[in-house]
Design goal:
alpha/beta, 5-stranded antiparallel beta sheet, 374 residues, Aminopeptidase, disordered N terminus, Cytosolic_carboxypeptidase, 18 strands, elongated, 2 domains, Immunoglobulin-like, Peptidase_M14
């Protein structure tokens, strides 16, 4: 991950909430992905911090990310972390550089986190998950094997004018496409890590990959919701919409940018072959399309997941849950009814070990390419 430049330079960005600057301790969320809505000092070294969603109603995924600094030297403080109208979800983690993270011991009382922090005059990051923002995506997309395999292009702008960036690998005579998207929901970091690992494996220069690219074009949009990521949103974009409930409506520029660009790439004799959407939830699960969707080939996803079951580490359970609703505006359901092909929501557990996430990302890419190239 990219070193946070403001931390490396010792800079303090302006605080949105002066109420979070106390006599002996200062909290700030003024960085990409930061989220801290309210601060209250309850006693000496005892603070209540609150995160409030960007708008309501919302499917609650209470995100928080902030830095804390002591003005009086090294000391220990007590934190109560409250999520408005929600239960605690993401276990608190700390980092001194925004790169290496460790989980903090905590308790949950009345649906809120309580934990202690050892702080100093150097900023300490506290967040629900690791930080991975636009700067990190940009470096990842433009380095290593990815830069050799994929070109990057801006396919549109978000509500607040941020670029929506895609990676694509296209060969002139290829007629079939694989579509991969991620980060519709900003806090879902394990889904993001899974996508990175999946795409890293796709990008490798090896016989399997080279054979795959002799038949398929690939389009990857790793961060569909750049405003939500930058602003530390719980779930929605800057328009107050759950983007994974906007496919088919296309009321938001982010979903419209993705589908418009895909359709521009699909010539009259080209077709979408398969689509994946990476997310996070409470457990590892694959949300697939039920048979009534009419997605073809009928047994495609079953064969893929069976191959993954046979090749993955036994510590990872391949769970599948199939559904289909004709009126749904979820990405996968829209893909199924519009293009007549399978689409899968690939969900990793919030707390699935990161190395296991990376392993499954790579192994699922391996098995998918083997299946699709035949």
């Amino acid at each position: 991950m990219t070193i946070r430049w403001w931390l490396a330079l010792g800079l303090c960005l302006p605080s949105l909430a002066s109420a979070c600057d106390f006599e002996e301790v200062a909290f700030s969320a003024e960085f990409e992905g930061g989220k801290l809505s309210q601060c209250e000092q309850l006693g000496d070294g005892h603070f209540r911090l609150t995160t409030v969603a960007e708008n309501y109603p919302i499917n609650p995924s209470p995100w928080y990310a902030f830095t804390v600094v002591s003005k009086t030297g090294a000391r220990e403080i007590e934190i109560e972390l409250v999520a408005e109208q929600s239960r605690a979800r993401y276990m608190p983690k700390i980092s001194t550089d925004g790169d290496t993270w460790e989980t903090v011991p905590f308790t949950v009382v009345d649906q809120q986190f309580q934990f202690s922090l050892k702080i100093s005059d150097q900023p300490l990051y506290v967040a629900g998950q690791e930080l991975w923002t636009a700067e990190d995506y940009q470096q990842w997309m433009t380095t290593g094997a990815r830069a050799q395999r994929f070109n990057t292009t801006v396919i549109g702008q978000s509500v607040q004018g941020r670029d929506i960036v895609a990676m694509q690998a296209v060969a002139e005579n290829n007629k079939e496409w694989l579509l991969v998207i991620g980060r519709q929901h900003p806090p879902e970091l394990t889904g993001a890590i899974g996508l990175l690992s999946f795409v890293d494996y796709l990008a490798a220069d090896a016989d399997l990959q080279n054979a795959f690219y002799n038949r398929y074009n690939v389009l990857v949009v790793p961060m569909v919701n750049p405003d939500g990521v930058a602003n530390g949103h719980w779930r929605h974009n800057a328009g107050g919409k759950d983007l994974n409930r906007d496919w088919g409506e296309f009321s938001q520029p982010e979903t419209k940018a993705v589908i418009d660009y895909l359709n521009q790439q699909l010539g009259e004799d080209e077709r979408l072959a398969f689509a994946l959407d990476f997310h996070s939830t409470q457990q590892d699960i694959f949300y697939t399309l039920a048979p009534e969707s009419g997605a073809q080939p009928t047994d495609f996803v079953t064969r893929w997941l069976d191959a993954l079951k046979a090749s993955r580490l036994s510590s990872f359970t391949v769970r599948e849950r199939a559904s289909y609703r004709e009126e749904s505006h979820v990405f996968t359901h829209y893909i199924g009814r519009t293009y007549g092909v399978h689409a899968v929501t690939f969900e990793f557990g919030d707390n699935t070990p990161r190395e296991l996430v990376r392993h499954i990302g790579q192994q699922s890419a391996h098995e998918l390419m083997l299946l699709m190239k035949d």
